[in-house]
Amino acid sequence: MTTTDTPLTKVLGAKTAKALEDHLDLRTAGDLIYHFPRRYDQRGEHTDLRSLQVDEQVTVLAQVQGMSVKPMRQRRGNMLEVTIGDGSGATLTCTFFNQAWRERELRKGVWGLFAGKVTEFRGKRQLNGPAYQLLSADASKDDAAAEIEEFAGALIPVYPAAQAVPTWVIAKCVRTLLDTFEPPDDPMPAGIRAARNLVGIGTALREIHRPSSEPSLYSAKHRLKWDEAFAVQLTLVQRRAKAAAAPGTARPRADAGLLAKFDASLPYELTEGQRDVGEEIAADLARPHPMHRLLQGEVGSGKTLVSVRAMLQVVDAGGQAALLAPTEVLATQHFRGISAQLGALGRAGELDGDPEGTQLTLVTGSLGAAARRAALAKVADGTAGIVVGTHALLYEGVDFKDLGLVVVDEQHRFGVEQRDALRAKAARPPHVLVMTATPIPRTVAMTVYGDLETSVLSQLPRGRSPIASHVIPALEKPAYLDRAWVRIKEEVRAGHQAYVVCPRIGEDEETPPKDDEPSRRPPLAVTEVLPLLRDEYLKGLRIAVLHGKMPPEEKDAVMRSFAAGDLDVLVATTVIEVGVDVPNSTVMLILDADRFGVSQLHQLRGRVGRGSAPGICLLHTEAVEGSAARERLDAVASTTDGFKLSEIDLEQRREGDVLGASQSGKHSHLRLLSLLRDEKLIKEARAEASTLIGDDPDLSRHPALAASVAALVDEDRAEYLEKG
């Protein structure tokens, strides 16, 4: 009998088990049984070859249509080119070097599974030396009889595979495992199984690998998706319940304090969204339990102002607030921006300061020894009511008198350990507000941030200008790029400023392409583009560079010059992605825009149009029309709705990344749940989890379920999910 804990060496033998461990990180029977097919092919319903993308690892079901043997030009020997097709009209070339003998088995008309990496050579897509498994009975070698029986079924499982362990090898291993596999006792409470019409776990695990019919496969997937959603929601509901019960310090709003003075001094009205979210946060801060709230809002929606008002409420109540930023550029920008907003209220003790105000202090790694000592003294004795800093706030020697609120900006750039380190500097758990300008789809917020209360700012403040975005297809219409440089010069002549963004700094070396593997050119780099701009395209303009490898004092000097209007153009990497606020900047040209993600492009675009003049974002690309990369850029250009774009972004990302699998570095069992398509299921799982935890907070009456949750959401991933 084989159980989920049985090592694969006992089921499959040492050689096969080692290959599965080395290439796919599968060690036990449980690992393999939860290595689900990523799709199913049917005989006669073949994969559409037109959907394949260059550099994609694929397995295709196709038919040999023709072949030719040619001598190689660069070296001795010959090359066998086999043309395969799937009935869609598209074809793919399989190339074999010095293997003309394969001509005997790859005969015209034979169907087979072909696996490899899609490359492109002279405009043709190809697989170089693909692994293959023929489905014809005429090619019945190496256990082909079992393979033919497998592929004669209605549904053919296609597994996530590796070059050394193709999908048909995995299918054979799973068949061997299922012969002796004893499923675990079903951990799902019987009442939930009945209410939600869920099949048993044993049936689900067998049918997901060897479906007897499409309805049976649907039922199996539905049950296993439920397990994944339920495990995550149970974890998050437990964490929210523990957080709600933890002791904290209430920081109620004062009737006549710094916050009231600050509000009275504002030269504009708060938006309705800022007022509503402010009330939610104020109520949280007044409770004797730590706030754990996520504040998400569009670029420029006024999140920082909301956080400043929250920090002033805590200062009014006798506490201190810390704002943690991911980079020195952003921390410095926040410090200057908040200083300007507070005015005399942030300069208590200075000649022009308000004696009833507080002090604002900046703590970064680049502070000199004397400045650092002075800043840390103000933090320790409470003189600094608001402390802005980078990771330097986490170091030993940074001690707060009474830390009452932690604000984390762009929280996705910080690990759980870093946030915990800052929270640990408080005598009692502080209130926590995490902010992001990356819009989050509703199901992601529910699944990944489910232990946080969520506030959304979607309304832009008055006076913010619209941003027009355009794709520049450099290969099809090179004149468009020439026009882009002219447009930048026109904006500068009109008294405005510009950004030119590159994907790379230029100091790092690209990995050289492998033999016989065509490669895209390296992404454009700041150091390569700069001399071209100075000497040719933007000659005569005042240009400077900003990137992450510059010394902090240089970065700060460049940002000061740009903000002061002493520079016309800033050539930068994504170091400007968040927080950089120069209202006079009106145009941004993003070179090789297809090398960036959707959310990243949306964030970058938010650096322009921050003043009264309209913003322009130009997306340069060599991606051809109809490609996935081009469609992504067209989507960004078509809307400034960050929430729509976030769903497009989610469609193109691995869901495991969203759920934290890549953060933990461990094998993930969260494989089937789709945060876009399974919103209803996630909501149902959330409701059942809330009811169950309310009745059994530690799952002590459901030990099998607790063990299942621990297997599906391991401790590292559980820590990742704890965003507070």
Automatic annotation (TrEMBL):
User: What InterPro entries does UniProt report for this protein, alphabetically?
Assistant: DEAD/DEAH_box_helicase_dom, Helicase_ATP-bd, Helicase_C-like, NA-bd_OB-fold, P-loop_NTPase, RecG/Mfd, RecG_dom3_C, RecG_wedge
Q: Which UniProt keywords apply?
A: ATP-binding, DNA damage, DNA repair, DNA-binding, Helicase, Hydrolase, Nucleotide-binding
Q: Which Gene3D superfamilies match?
A: Nucleic acid-binding proteins, P-loop containing nucleotide triphosphate hydrolases
Membrane-spanning residues: none
The superkingdom listed in its UniProt entry is Bacteria
Give all residue intervals belonging to the Helicase ATP-binding domain.
Answer: 284-457
Q: Which SMART domains would you find in this protein's record?
A: DEXDc, HELICc
Residue ranges of every copy of the Helicase C-terminal domain listed in the record: 480-651
Q: Which GO terms describe its biological process?
A: DNA repair
Record-level Gene Ontology MF annotations: ATP binding; DNA binding; DNA helicase activity; hydrolase activity
NCBIfam families under this entry?
PRK10917.2-1 (NF008167), PRK10917.2-2 (NF008168)
> What is the protein's name according to its record?
Probable DNA 3'-5' helicase RecG
Per the UniProt record, the source organism is Actinoplanes philippinensis
